[in-house]
Specification:
InterPro entries: START-like_dom_sf. It comes from Rhodococcus tukisamuensis. The structure is a single chain. This protein has helices at residues 17-25, 27-30, 40-52, 101-122, 141-145, 219-234, 236-240, and strands at 8-13, 57-59, 64-66, 72-78, 81-87, 128-134, 157-161, 167-175, 179-184, 190-197, 207-214. 30% of the residues lie in helices and 28% in strands. It has a six-stranded antiparallel beta sheet, with helices on both faces. Strands 1-5-4-3-2 form a five-stranded antiparallel beta sheet, with helices on one face. It is α+β, with helices and mostly antiparallel strands. The longest helix has 22 residues, at 101-122. The chain folds into two domains: 1-124, START domain (Alpha-D-Glucose-1,6-Bisphosphate, Chain A, domain 4, 2-Layer Sandwich), CATH 3.30.530; 127-245, 2-Layer Sandwich (Alpha-D-Glucose-1,6-Bisphosphate, Chain A, domain 4). It starts with 7 loop residues before the first strand and ends in a 5-residue tail after the last helix.
Length: 245
């Protein structure tokens, strides 16, 4: 019988291994990079407990962490930085999650970039987050927003007027075949992650998602941003039918 290879996701973080390990073992720090806020503070806090602490096996001296579902974190020092590697558990090991296996793999890639950004650029300071997702008829979030024309390797600068009415400027942070990460100067700087949601039986047509992370914004400023971006996302079906770029 052929066994499918286990996906491996990794990112190199410009921080010492001890700092990265702390970011994986302190719940208050995890919530400053993992996922996004939802349903008040209890929602994200409960998710963090379930993923990073319930049934988890850790080896602090070796800096390895094996989650309940079998996904394994390994931290390795590398020339003053830390390589964070996640080796996914084999698909089929937890059948009730098989339909979401690709989603979880994509999610880990996103969250590692959020960890890297939060540590390198803000020392894991407090953030405010906005999450938007849903079906887009095969149109990417980058196209709907108007940043699919941003080119260049990570570190390249960009400036673009986007469909929300904002003009975003910053640098390319991360790029993969399914995700685009951009730093946004006006958000602290902040991080904008745009990704594809894989299709599955519950989501036959797939979809797209947007994660906004801002730093240093007050409640009113962030509420205005969330309202503006939420209104744009609510019109994504009509936006997806026109030429955005």
């Amino acid at each position: 019988m052929t066994t499918a290879p286990q996906p491996v996701i990794e990112a190199t973080v410009a921080a010492a291994p001890d700092l990265v390990w702390q970011a994986l073992r302190d719940p208050a720090l995890i919530r400053r990079w993992h996922g996004w806020e939802y349903d008040g503070e209890d929602g994200l806090d409960e998710e963090i407990t379930q993923i990073y602490f319930d049934g988890v096996s850790e080896d602090a001296p070796a800096r390895t962490l094996t989650l309940q579902g079998g996904d394994r974190f390994t931290l390795s020092p590398c020339d003053g930085t830390t390589t964070v590697r996640i080796t996914r558990a084999p698909k089929g090991g937890n059948p009730e999650w098989d339909d979401w296996y690709e989603d979880i793999t994509e999610g880990w890639a996103t969250f590692l970039q959020q960890l890297r950004f939060g540590l390198e650029r803000h020392g894991l300071a407090e953030r405010r987050t906005l999450h938007l997702d849903g079906p887009t008829g095969g149109v990417t979030a980058a196209h709907l927003l108007g940043v699919d024309t941003v080119v260049g390797d990570p570190g390249s600068g960009f400036s673009a007027p986007v469909a929300t009415g904002d003009t975003l400027s910053g640098t390319v942070w991360f790029r993969s075949p399914t995700q685009l990460g951009l730093t946004v100067d006006a958000w602290g700087p902040g991080l904008l992650m745009l990704g594809v949601l894989p299709g599955n039986p519950q989501r036959p047509g797939g979809g797209a998602q947007v994660i906004v992370s801002t730093y240093g914004q007050g409640a009113e400023e962030f509420a205005a941003l969330a309202d503006r971006w939420g209104s744009w996302w609510d019109t994504r079906e009509s936006a997806g039918s026109c030429d955005c770029g």
